[in-house]
Amino acid sequence: MTQAHLLVLATGGTIAGVAGSALRHDYRPGQIGVDDYLEQVDALGLEARLVGRQIANIGSEDIGAAIWTRLHEEITAAFADPGCQGVIVTHGTDTAEETAFLLDLTLPTTKPVVLVGAMRPADAVGYDGLRNFANAVRVASDPEAAGRGVLVVMGDRVFAARDVRKVRTRGTDAFRGFPRDAVGLVTPSALDWFGAPWRASEGAQYAYHAELPEVPILYVYGGIGADVAARMTSEATRGLVVAGVGEGNMPQPLRAELVRLRESGVAIVRASRLDEGLVDREPEDDANGFVAARALNPQKARILLQVLLANGIDDPAAIQAAFDRR
Fold first, then answer.
1. How far apart are CA 161 and CA 194, in angstroms?
2. Considering 2, 11, 14, 69, which one is annotated as catalytic?
3. Residue 144 · residue 193 · CB < 8 Å
4. What pTM was computed for the model?
5. Dihedrals φ, ψ of 239, to 5°?
6. Is residue 2 a contact partner of residue 68, using CB atoms and an 8 Å limit?
7. Mean pLDDT of successive 10-residue stretches along the chain, which has 326 residues
8. Quick check: helix, strand or coil at residue 88?
9. Annotation says 14 is catalytic
């Protein structure tokens, strides 16, 4: 069997974290460099040739536009390299779903791209990072992973970027998918896909822009005042995602303020603060010019809205059509 040539882009996170004790709860993410990490991986005897590149070595709470741009550039270059069969990105778990979704929207599907992380630091009892990484190698080495968009591998399961979400603060089973759960099951020695690849086109869905428009998330809570929306927006704000109660609901005074913002040119998307469930369009959305997030949670709705606005798509109907396709 020919070994796959895979590029490993390291950004830090718990998978490269160290606690200094096998029993401590607190730890420092991003302490192990990619070269040292791949030395540990060599002992596993994986059937792949791995080339590492350090993009950052930080917790994923600090990952944003600059690192997204570097990742996009490196992966684009890897796609143009005929000797590279796939890309693995080691990443902290806190914002992995946002990085994965942004890359999924703006990269072609010609080669596998897999994000992988860990819930326990490298020196903890029951460290899950090496197994997750071995699983990621298995997925990224499989030609059938192409055409499925960007994937996230955690806890012996493979998730699509558009579905994956972190649902627990602790435990190796912290990730789940919605509306689809796992799209595959993986171990270091086996991989089973659920269904055929779903990305019909090999091209990127949208162009990547290094500078994304300002789009805050407004979290709705009991007793929220209408003035909150005005306080969190400025002249630079291009869109706003509402993490509403229930099916994206909000008090009427706040809704009236958001209508005013919409009339001033700010795109408004209604999502839900609940972990699962669809936010469908309602008759009032037509009158208000709002967009329903459908299956996307607030953080992913924000990423999609930023990408759409950066690509010049600002009409509510066109934005809704893009959300309907998710």
1. 15
2. 14
3. yes
4. 0.96
5. -155, 170
6. no
7. 89 92 75 95 94 97 97 98 97 98 97 97 93 98 96 98 96 96 97 92 94 98 96 96 97 97 98 95 96 98 98 98 94
8. strand
9. yes
